[in-house]
Amino acid sequence: MATPKNIAILGASGYTGAELVRLIATHPMMNIVAMSAERKAGQEMAEVFPHLRHLDLPTLAKIDQIDFSDVDLCFCALPHATSQKVIASLPKALKIVDLSADFRLRDPEEYAKWYGGQHDALECQAEAVYGLTEFYRSQIKAARLVAGTGCNAATGQYALRPLIAAELIDLDDIIIDLKTGVSGAGRALKEPFLHAELSEGAFPYAIGGTHRHLAEFDQEFSAIAGRPVKVQFTPTLLPANRGIIANVYVKGDAEAIFKAFQKAYADEPFIEILPYGQAPSTRHVRGSNYCHIGVTADRLSGRAMIVVALDNLTKGSSGQALQNANLMLGLPEDMGLLSAPVFP
Amino acid sequence: MATPKNIAILGASGYTGAELVRLIATHPMMNIVAMSAERKAGQEMAEVFPHLRHLDLPTLAKIDQIDFSDVDLCFCALPHATSQKVIASLPKALKIVDLSADFRLRDPEEYAKWYGGQHDALECQAEAVYGLTEFYRSQIKAARLVAGTGCNAATGQYALRPLIAAELIDLDDIIIDLKTGVSGAGRALKEPFLHAELSEGAFPYAIGGTHRHLAEFDQEFSAIAGRPVKVQFTPTLLPANRGIIANVYVKGDAEAIFKAFQKAYADEPFIEILPYGQAPSTRHVRGSNYCHIGVTADRLSGRAMIVVALDNLTKGSSGQALQNANLMLGLPEDMGLLSAPVFP
Amino acid sequence: MATPKNIAILGASGYTGAELVRLIATHPMMNIVAMSAERKAGQEMAEVFPHLRHLDLPTLAKIDQIDFSDVDLCFCALPHATSQKVIASLPKALKIVDLSADFRLRDPEEYAKWYGGQHDALECQAEAVYGLTEFYRSQIKAARLVAGTGCNAATGQYALRPLIAAELIDLDDIIIDLKTGVSGAGRALKEPFLHAELSEGAFPYAIGGTHRHLAEFDQEFSAIAGRPVKVQFTPTLLPANRGIIANVYVKGDAEAIFKAFQKAYADEPFIEILPYGQAPSTRHVRGSNYCHIGVTADRLSGRAMIVVALDNLTKGSSGQALQNANLMLGLPEDMGLLSAPVFP
Amino acid sequence: MATPKNIAILGASGYTGAELVRLIATHPMMNIVAMSAERKAGQEMAEVFPHLRHLDLPTLAKIDQIDFSDVDLCFCALPHATSQKVIASLPKALKIVDLSADFRLRDPEEYAKWYGGQHDALECQAEAVYGLTEFYRSQIKAARLVAGTGCNAATGQYALRPLIAAELIDLDDIIIDLKTGVSGAGRALKEPFLHAELSEGAFPYAIGGTHRHLAEFDQEFSAIAGRPVKVQFTPTLLPANRGIIANVYVKGDAEAIFKAFQKAYADEPFIEILPYGQAPSTRHVRGSNYCHIGVTADRLSGRAMIVVALDNLTKGSSGQALQNANLMLGLPEDMGLLSAPVFP
After folding, report:
1. Which end of chain A, N or C, is less surrounded by CB atoms within 10 Å?
2. Does the distance separating the beta carbons of C230 and D202 come in below 8 Å?
3. Catalytic site residues (chains A, B, C, D) (predicted)?
4. ipTM higher than 0.90?
């Protein structure tokens, strides 16, 4: 019987860190041997996340207290900008899945433009593979450093990549109207994320084409099309914790689009194409690594809407990260990721 | 001192009926003298809606038990199709504000197409005035029968009417992506409206251009433009009770749009234009008759997004109805409607 | 026609401050002439609370920038400990309704014990009247300084004061199991109050008899009984914004208790006694100044449960404050407070 | 390698049925070979519960269409009263875990009293074992028919059984104040369970000692004590989908109680005792089979409060059922049940 892999999680006191622990808890081939949380070093995970109290986990440590010599793979769930500094300092042979935005953009100028500063680990950036598993699978298997995608960026790409590749839609008229639960904002203490302010409410943010995940859309869609592609993208904050759902408005033939999805995702373990004319719901993917996609023709000829739903913390972040880690470690891609969504 | 007006409410056991009672409870010039609820006739309102138990209200009756001779104005909060039959049978001089869809469409063929049957009260339809107060004010003042708008239809029109009238946008490329709380569905007992199914969820419905409020958009926008205008419109159900918020995507100059709103709504008591570049939230209009509108330019030149938020039960339905009733009765338009939104 | 009173609100950037503004917005005899918020001085209220943007309000100021010479009454919605310092420095003739805990406890030693420090304004404390309107009405009318009650303290007292006074229950075996929405915690930025942490959750806090509102229970119940009375009291945080509901377990005769309530509250404009054997819901008082009370006998002989529901921000805090202010200013007690609850 | 067991689920279209499917989906030693839903026979599970669409499941059938000859164990998630008729008609050797109330009460008179009718399968009742795993483990291993407990009944028993057994508390003064999410009511279409009616609300129900789970408390506690024990028990409906949390008020020594829990549950895989003086939250057990228990002394000498939290659909129902099925089939008790709670 094979030996489980030793896993470290840096930034374990945030939601994506906790989600990694939740998923790995029942993974048969991974052991968590180290976890960091700079400001909560010395605490037990049960104090920080009481829902994990039944697990036998290492005490939270500072990163520089961790011995990486026996670690097979390290997840970095650190804030942007911090992540690049930390990763640059880790052993050069250590396999890493980064969940931050730091290594998603291949062009340093784009990074500087969207994230407001120079990149401090360009040599790591050079070897980073973009972590959208279904479209970078072979590179991920061979990668040392994988850059997890933005959760919104993943959602939009599942809708659009096969259509751009198959030249099925007008590239100059794409609108992604996306709704997201609040856990995507992390454990940040800000007024709009208080229950008293968000419950029973909904509002768009990062309006006008200012959301940073647009940088990923620009990079990826332009690469597929071989010409610049710029979409409109507006996220709306929902009074919900988990879940992203995007209405993607395109000009193209809905039935051809449907067939393109059936073909593109035929063998994908986590992508479910709904019957033609149906739309998914965030509730039906909650807590799972599954992504549901529906296609509908509009009453207006030549227009179609694609609806994509996934759980931002799982398929949009920590689940994706684990899927990539499985590939990097030579394990079955779906190991530890087959739990069904939690409904109701 | 003037004598208060006598008011009847038909269909008082639904949410819009209850909302009318809530608003009229503190209206200084209206007395509720009769209320109907066919299946709950004989019950007190406190049994049907315990939040109204402190009020001294008439016992619920069947419609044919009500004496309309002293009634100054009657609100009809009945289901579609029922409403037209009832209104056709009411005294011909009775002032009526109808909250159903029955008298919104001027073309009987459009009614038949969208609502699936012949209209049974075409003579009433002929005199009905469309109830979007800000744009039909003078006709409403003189009307006997006012047809309340769809709540989604009102929301979209606040965003688009001034822009179509001022020829500021491309009429062939308009997308209304709207999110709505569940009270718009009424007190219907259906699985998707259960707390256990809706809470923490969100999903689009009536996809593909099939929502009936499109008939109102078609009628109104085409009339303003003097040519057919057909928009794309998709509603998403939110895990929230009250509130509609719509992202309206248009091609046009955002600053010109902003100025058009400032001009069109300068004297409106219930329409608030936010500072340029800001977006509203459903939480900030909840329980009130106020409507908040924001305009933002997109990063893509020549594209703008208008965001409109209102409370579907108040400004989108019962508040609008009361605003119209005030006009029909010669009362100040804002009487009983100035309560501030409830936040948090 | 009488001249409206000039009102100042100190601490307008918190939830109770905003709730005061909301209620006073439609009060026919009050004008808000000054509002303070130390850290947000210079901002408009529309920036701090966008739901109030339609109102014409004074710019937020620092307290020492306010001219109190024309102010008829000042509401203090400041944090505990701060409030006593500020009030001690205000003009000695200014009528004040304080919403903090600072002047609720008549015994300075009790204050020191529960609030962890010496009281800095004992001379103000000496003239303060406890603000539970229904039981201190005549003193409040004559008072210069009224100390608003704790929201939980008000809830429990509505259940128990008439029963202790009428000697209907065992004083040594009283349990108050109370559930509260999160707005009672104010706009504090703490992890348990984040939507992502509270939604779909519920947990007791201040367990073991440590909640500070117990000091009010001890003071008031002992005074009525003429002997020490100490209750058990546990609050549970609900995934809801507004509303308190308490199950109060007593040993006594349920029918006698019901009659005592009917008698005690017969003329009260805001207290509704439900039919015997029914229980209220927070949803049915939401956003209003009404309090609903129900009484039920248990299957175990000699035991009864009283259930009390009110809105913590309205009847439990700002609505109570306004009710008291009306009395202090010689206005009708219910002026501006008759809005019906918002449901759904 | 062992052969997986063949499993049938009767009543698969309700929440407990869906939860069984969710849990068994990743169970390495169970295959679902048949599922029934009388009114939805012929449909695929993906139509009834879209969150399960990724699974390869049998088509829903009527019970009399199912061939039980190869079934190793059958879960019955049918409504009360229906369940006893169906179980009486199933093969006499078939292992059955029943999730209804039909076989929980050993005394047919108690059944008739609480459930309002004669029991139609007394011969099955005679062999039924009460399904509270931790306290009936050896009987469950040997049982053919196990009667799953009420979800509230399980919660209260985890708090009280060890204390009654150890004679640590006053048996005549026990109050269970319990709060529960709405999924415990099943998929029933009733107004109080609509999102619009429940969200932001909370109210007690089955007040006065009328909840049927009291029958289980009476049966079990009296059996342990060897004398009649009758508790007070009031449930409150929470605006949440999953989760039960109970404050259990007892007279006894808190530290002795804490030690009794540590001893009683020392080897239990799913019961977590929190550090002394802490209380659990429903959010920290959500979607899992774990139960969290906390003990606190009150400020009043000799009084203690035990707080118990579990997920009503998992540990309170379907998870418990699977735990028992594992025992009956000779499988590891925790197989398929180790998923961590879903937070946030």
Report:
1. N
2. no
3. 151
4. yes
